[in-house]
Design goal:
The chain has about 240 residues and is of the alpha/beta class. It has a single domain (about 15-235), classed as Rossmann fold (3-Layer(aba) Sandwich). Helices cover about 30% and strands about 30% of the residues. The chain is built from 8 helices and 10 strands. Strands 5-9-8-6-10 form a 5-stranded mixed barrel. Helix 4 (about 130-145) packs across helix 8.
């Protein structure tokens, strides 16, 4: 059943969804990794493709940027399109001196200052876990592929951290001993909605900037240079 944000028909979206933020990254993945893919949604250019990866049906759908955007799309996927599992793949900033540009982080637990859960569900919640089963599959797949990943706590922010007036003050407000590995802008909403609707979600992130490094990846690198993370998510989806 189409929604105001998604014109795919029921049955055109697979049970398992890989969700990058960038619509052009979704297009890149479909064109380079899927067989017999079809564009099933293009409202607001949030490109959504369903096809086959190594013989298994899979959907690639963009989320846009920020918790409000991924909150809408993930809620509708779970609630109206019978999706069971979402693996978000995206970019992040590193909050750990040993995690460098192009390293991959798997979020196990995410903290946010946002009132997203309070507004959505009258729940004063600021900390939510990813799905352990999905994370175990991804960890095993990473080992089989020889891809190094960092697993641990991450932060989800309402603001792009490079534009904060003082990111160090923000980091001081994180829970004591939280030991955040990185920061991005979508996973809390995704994880919370999955928990609320009894579905499954996790988040893989490639580091594109760092509070310890003045360098950052270009938009072109962010779109096409994240193939290790993409491959890891796709191969993991085969085991779900």
């Amino acid at each position: 059943m189409p929604t105001t944000h998604n014109n795919a028909k029921l049955g055109e979206i697979a049970k398992n969804v890989i969700m990058p933020g960038d619509p052009l990254r979704a297009k890149y993945i479909a064109e380079n990794f899927l067989d017999n893919y079809k564009l099933v949604n293009d409202i607001r250019n949030i490109y959504t493709y369903t096809g086959n990866y190594k013989g298994k049906e899979l959907t690639i759908m963009a989320s846009g940027m920020g918790m409000p955007s991924i909150g809408i799309y993930s809620y509708e996927l779970y609630k109206f399109y019978e999706v069971e599992n979402i693996i978000r793949i995206g970019s992040c900033g590193s909050y750990h001196k040993d995690i460098k540009l192009m390293d991959i982080i798997l979020s196990e637990n995410v903290y946010s200052e946002s009132n997203f859960a309070l507004t959505l569900n009258n729940d004063n919640c600021h900390n939510v876990n990813s799905n352990v089963h999905l994370n175990n599959i991804i960890s095993e797949t990473a080992s089989n592929l020889g891809i190094k990943i960092f697993k641990g706590n991450t932060v989800c922010s309402d603001c792009f951290d490079l534009y904060m007036t003082d990111v160090n003050e923000f980091m001081k407000r994180l829970p004591k001993d939280f030991n955040a590995l990185g920061v991005e802008m979508e996973s809390f909403a995704l994880f919370y909605i999955a928990k609320m609707l009894n579905k499954n979600a996790t988040c893989l992130m490639t580091v594109v900037d760092s509070v310890f490094d003045k360098n950052s990846l270009s938009s072109e690198d962010r779109e096409t240079g994240l193939n290790n993370m993409i491959k890891l998510a796709l191969d993991s989806s085969l085991k779900i």
